[in-house]
Amino acid sequence: MRYLLAATALAFGVPAVADDQKLPDPAAFAATHAEAISGAINHPSRAEDRARDQYRHPSETLAFFRVAPDMKVGEYAPGGGWYTRVLGHYLGGEGQLVGLYYDPTSGPFDAEAQQRIRAGAAGFPAEAAEFTGLPAEHFSAMTLDAVPEGEAGTFDRILVIRMLHNMMRWNNADSEIKTMRGLLKPGGMLGIVQHRAPEDASADYANGSKGYLRQDDVVGFVEALGFEFVGSSEVNANPRDPANWEDGVWMMPPSLGGDDAMDAQTRDLGESDRMTLLFRKRD
User: What start and end residues bound the annotated signal peptide (predicted)?
Assistant: First the structure.
């Protein structure tokens, strides 16, 4: 595993490869944008979300990904609005948040599911407005099979939060990430947060079907798709998660997908152990 040993990696991580563009240190970046980050994290619309902050560390994660408030950022597979609320308020002034939805023609999507995906993208601006209280005009969205003309090469960051395992088990991770790469500017960055399997987990366990992936596998996979590995952070790590649940990550909070006895065992463990990885688009 590519765990970083420098002391700063305990919080944010440090560059894993030579960084010609001299990314700012995450702690310094966080200090520079402290007011904007704090405003987003503490916005009243997130009142019910804050219980999860201790596990998902949105402030530290944004700083590690070096997401600035004036950037154009893609949120891959927006779900219940947890990160949409953070990003929406953080980017609500000078920046832009774009929902990136699956390519409906990839993966195991029947006609009804494809229609739901397209409807989700069409409805994202209004939904994000409802989530955040900001005008719908602040937001846009697309499905990855229908990238509008002029969007290629315009994104500063794309974030894939706890979704790569689904892309792996649906067998569309390579095509989706290639499309995302095309959306990024030269030198634009892809940030991934993903449930992490132990390095000695079997390939059958760590293939996405249980929700967990091995970190080295993820790094090698994304590198092969035209990215440079910039670094990793342990900010979303949870050593209390053994990451070997027979029924997968869904046994952990917040899903608690087991019976009463299993839920009692996992309820107080926190959320899953997660890798936090940053990649730069190669020329």
Answer: 1-18
